[in-house]
Each structure stands twice: as structure tokens, then as C-alpha cells.
Amino acid sequence: MEPTSRLEATATITASTTPIDGISEPLPAVGIDPFSLILNLLGGNETTASLFSGNGLIDFLGIIWNIYVLIAFLLSILMLGLYAYASIWRWFYYNDADRQLREAEDLYDAQFRGVHKNSRLDDIQAHVASENPNDWKLAIIEADIILDGILKDRGYAGATLGERLRSISPNQVVSLQDAWEAHKTRNMIAHEGPDFVLTKRMAEDAIKRYLRVFAEFGIT
User: Fold this and answer.
1) Using CA atoms, how far apart are residues 101 and 190, in angstroms rounded to an integer?
2) If you count Cβ atoms within 10 Å of the first and of the last residue's Cβ in the chain, which end, N or C, has fewer?
3) Do 121 and 214 contact (CB within 8 A), yes or no?
4) CA angle, 206 as apex, 204 and 210 as ends, to 5°?
5) Residue 128 burial (C-beta neighbours within 10 Å; 0-12, 13-18, 19+)
6) Which of 163, 179, 187, 188 is nearest to 216 (CA)?
């Protein structure tokens, strides 16, 4: 009877492992953990593991942010320094151009002081009729000097032409706006230097404005 018992035991084991109705036992699910994969690639040590934990990632991003802030701060200081350097040299450049222009104005005024204004107007007309842009600028400078002298002679207050123009009301001088517009062109020539592109049309317009002011003061 013992062999029979062994046979029955074997049959019982076989029956327990045989699929029922063709359905096999399900296989365990297979998944990929990206953090585990990265940890394995990086060596899987404790430091790396702590980096990819919640607090570790926040600390890492904090370090990156601090580095970014430091670099941005240093670059800001550098850019401010460059801006200050460029501004200083720009000021020296335009100040020197303005000084040279004032010297040219003083020289012209000294040469033509006491000369009849009509002769000086003829000189202006000759310069603006030229094809040389430098002559156009010279015509405007000459006209501005004449205007400044006219206002001085009429007793308008101010240390500069701009201050004298500000002391005048439109009721006193009808062509005051023409004087301002023409004087603005002169200032652009003086302050912007070679960067200012003066066209012949602009020069002719400025001279026409000066002449309207001169005519109002009886100078033609």
C-alpha cells in the first residue's frame, strides 16, 4: 500500500500545480523606476540617493539659484561699470566738441564784430548755398551768433541765447517759435558733434527761420 500512497501524493502535487481551465498563474509585474536607474548610473551611493530625495533636490536647486544670483550680481556690477565708463568718456567727447564749437563761434564773432549785419547775412546765404555739409553747419552757427547779438542789443536778460529766448514771451516776438526751432538745430550740431547728420533741407529750413526772426527785428 505504500507505493500507492506515493503515487497518490505525486498526483496530488501535480494536480495542485496544473493550470485550471487553461489559466496560468500571473507573472509578477515588471516596472522601471527612473530614480533607481539614475542612482545606479551615478554609482548608487548615499550622497547621490540623498540628492534625489525630496529635501536633497530642493537643496540642490537652492545651490544652483545661489550660483545664478551671484553670477547675475557680478555681471550687473560689470555692466554698470562699463556704462559709467562709457558715459564719462561720452561726456568728455561732447564737451570737447562743444568747446571747439564755442571757440569757432568766438573767433567768428571777433572777426565780424562791427561789420554790417547785411554783410554777415550774405555770408550765411553763401554758406547754406554750398554743397559742403560743413558750410551748412557754419551758416547755422553764424546765424545763431547774429541772433544772440540782436537779443543782447535789445536788452533781453540771460547769460546765454537759450536763457534770453526763455525770457521772451510770444507777445513780444511773433517769430519766437522760429528762433527756438533754429536754435535747437544749432544745439544738435554742438552737442551731437559728428554723430549729427545735417541735411541741406534741414539747414535751409533753419536759416529761413533765423531770417524770419531777423526780419522781425528789422534786419534784412
Assistant:
1) 6
2) N
3) yes
4) 115
5) buried
6) 179
Question: If DSSP codes are grouped into helix, strand and coil, which group holds residue 17?
Answer: helix
Return the number of other C-beta atoms located less than 10 Å from residue 176's C-beta. Answer: 16
Rg of the chain on CA atoms, in Å: 45
Three-class SS state of 3: helix
pLDDT, tens digit, 9 for 90 and up, residues 138-195 = 999 999 999 998 998 888 988 889 999 999 988 889 999 999 999 999 999 888 877 8
| Residue count (the chain) | 220
23 φ, ψ (degrees, to nearest 5): -100, 120
Please say whether the dihedral angle defined by the alpha carbons of residues 62, 68, 70 and 72, taken in this order, is positive or negative: negative
Amino acid at site 156: Y
Main-chain phi, psi angles of 20, to 5 degrees: -95, 125
| Closest C-alpha among 197, 203, 35, 183 to residue 105 | 183
Tens-place pLDDT, residues 174-184: 999 999 999 99
Q: What share of the chain is helix, strand, coil (3-state, %, to 5)?
A: 75, 0, 25
Helices (H), 18-53: 34-42, 46-51
